[in-house]
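Today's session is about reading a structure prediction critically. Students often jump straight to the picture, but the first step is always the sequence itself: look for stretches that repeat, for charged clusters, for runs of hydrophobic residues. Only then move on to the predicted structure, which in these notes is written as discrete structure tokens rather than atom positions. Here is the chain we will use throughout the hour.
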Amino acid sequence: MAHTHDHDQLANELPPNIYIIGAQSTGKTTLVLALGDYFAQNLQSEKLPSQPYQLKEVARGVLLRHKFTASDITSSKERSLELQRLIIEAQAAAEGALQDIWYIADRSALDAVAYARQYVGEAEACGLRQGVAWQQVEEKMRAGVVILCEPGGEWLMDDGVRLMPRDRNEWFSLNSHFQILLVECGIPHATLPCSVSTLHERVDFVVQAWKQKQKLDAQGR
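Below is the predicted structure for this chain, in token form.
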């Protein structure tokens, strides 16, 4: 029992995790890397127990490991749904392995549900939220800092792996599914406008949201 108590106490003392989410090509990975640099450089001034772990490439790893391609998302509803289910399970496993470490996540399980809503259907996407893996990550997201990156900037670039939207309407449609899901799931979040375009400003936007969350958590203890 003492071990469980120590684990719970450590978890309560960790800074809130950060989730950078949103449609493809909205600057998420660039922002995660910049946030990692910020916290590494401000470890003492922010009174951090450690640098955050950067949780990246979960979805990309699933694509490669299970031999999916980006085109499967739009060409086959069955394979698209299976891919999103696998991504949610992989995301839950990756976050579950970081029990005593705080982290910055590049994407989240909610991204998979948003893609399922867009490319498979609302009922099927709702079904993805019934599993144990989703329930685990949903709880963690509610306790963290969730930043939704708005599309519309100059980041739209094809890297040969990610799914590219056919046009800006599809890009913004996917973003609307993120917004709807965040509200439906009761996950507090902040939207990072595409008009906040410099990397310094984008990092500062997230850091201020993170500090506000820390303050609220401290008041609640």
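Discussion point for the tutorial: Confidence is low (pLDDT under 50) at residues 1-11, 158-162.
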